[in-house]
Amino acid sequence: MDLSALITRGFDTTDQALWLAVVDQGACSVGPLTPDDWYPESAPAEAARREAAGALSVCAACPVRAECLELALRNWTVGQHGVWGGTVPAERERLRTGRVAQLTRVLSRNRNAELAAPRGTC
């Protein structure tokens, strides 16, 4: 099941606006790093952070770091790889898992409330 529409519900900023902000204002769009510097090979977060230290230092001063992270979480096909918003894939996986779990709890609570609500009689 694709949860992207449910995960992003309630956000005012569209994906297109996020992409434009990140591409236009992102610190990663300029600088001496190669594309490989943005893609750590190790899966564990600690090792990946060591491998991507240069990229993470660029992210630390980026004016659209939060927007970049949000974009990666919303668009998991792309966001599951590389450095986004100052995080490595393992860190974003934990954030995304927490979001999905929270969404599941809210949907379950809403469904239970609807089932418990008295039905109108006709």
Quickly describe the structure:
Helices cover 60% and strands 0% of the residues.
Looking at this protein, list some descriptive labels.
single chain, 122 residues, mainly alpha
Map the helices and strands.
Elements: H1 4-8, H2 15-25, H3 45-51, H4 53-60, H5 65-74, H6 76-79, H7 89-116
Task: Describe the model.
The structure is a single chain. The chain is mostly helical. The protein has one domain (4-116). The chain has helices spanning 4-8, 15-25, 45-51, 53-60, 65-74, 76-79, 89-116. Helix 2 packs across helix 5. The chain starts with a helix and ends in a 6-residue tail after the last helix.
- The total tally of domains equals 1
Number of helices: 7
- Unreliable sequence segments: none
Distance between the termini: 36 Å
User: What integer is the average pLDDT?
Assistant: 85
The number of distinct β-strands equals: 0
Q: Which descriptor suits the 3D outline?
A: elongated
Q: Please state the structural category.
A: mainly alpha
Largest sheet: none
What is the helix content? 55-70%
Radius of gyration, taken over Cα atoms and rounded to an integer in Å: 18 Å
